[in-house]
Amino acid sequence: MESDAEEEAAATPAAAATPGAGRLKGNPELTVDADMREMAKTAAWSVSSCKAGNGVAALRDDNLDTYWQSDGAQPHLVNIQFQKKVQLQLVVLYVDFKLDESYTPSKISIRAGDGFHNLKEIRTVELAKPVGWVHISLSGIDPRYAL
């Protein structure tokens, strides 16, 4: 996975890692809270570029051993489009600096709008050698911990 990668989900990490998860570090399990709905499957996904076999399908296949790998100049983008306006609360993605090293995102920029022509940045996150699930609140309040 590369910089500016975005994956939409409203989710929470499970309490323990799955035994036999291979070379994965961090917590590979992700569950969705009952009061949240995972929205990624309702969107159309595209990427700015990709190496053969490492496109959207590898990004979205629920297998932490596969990943998207860009094949072009920066910025590297994952575009997620919904048919109608949605209000997302949380963006979640899995990264592993120990496996990806220089390909691990160091900065994630989340933009929203009615189309590519009017996207506005709503959140930017800097990552320092991340391992595991990264949860990015879009409302300023992490819905997993709201009262």
UniProtKB/TrEMBL annotation:
Question: What SMART domains does this protein's entry cite?
Answer: APC10
Compositional bias (Low complexity) spans?
Answer: 10-22
UniProt keywords (A-Z) are: Cell cycle, Cell division, Mitosis, Ubl conjugation pathway
Name any Gene Ontology BP term: anaphase-promoting complex-dependent catabolic process
GO CC, sorted alphabetically, is: anaphase-promoting complex
Where is the DOC domain positioned along the sequence? 15-147
Region span, Disordered: 1-28
Q: Does the keyword Metal-binding apply?
A: no
Give the family, as the similarity comment puts it: Belongs to the APC10 family.
Q: Which PANTHER family match?
A: ANAPHASE-PROMOTING COMPLEX 10, ANAPHASE-PROMOTING COMPLEX SUBUNIT 10
Protein name stated in the entry: Anaphase-promoting complex subunit 10
Q: What species was this sequence derived from?
A: Zea mays
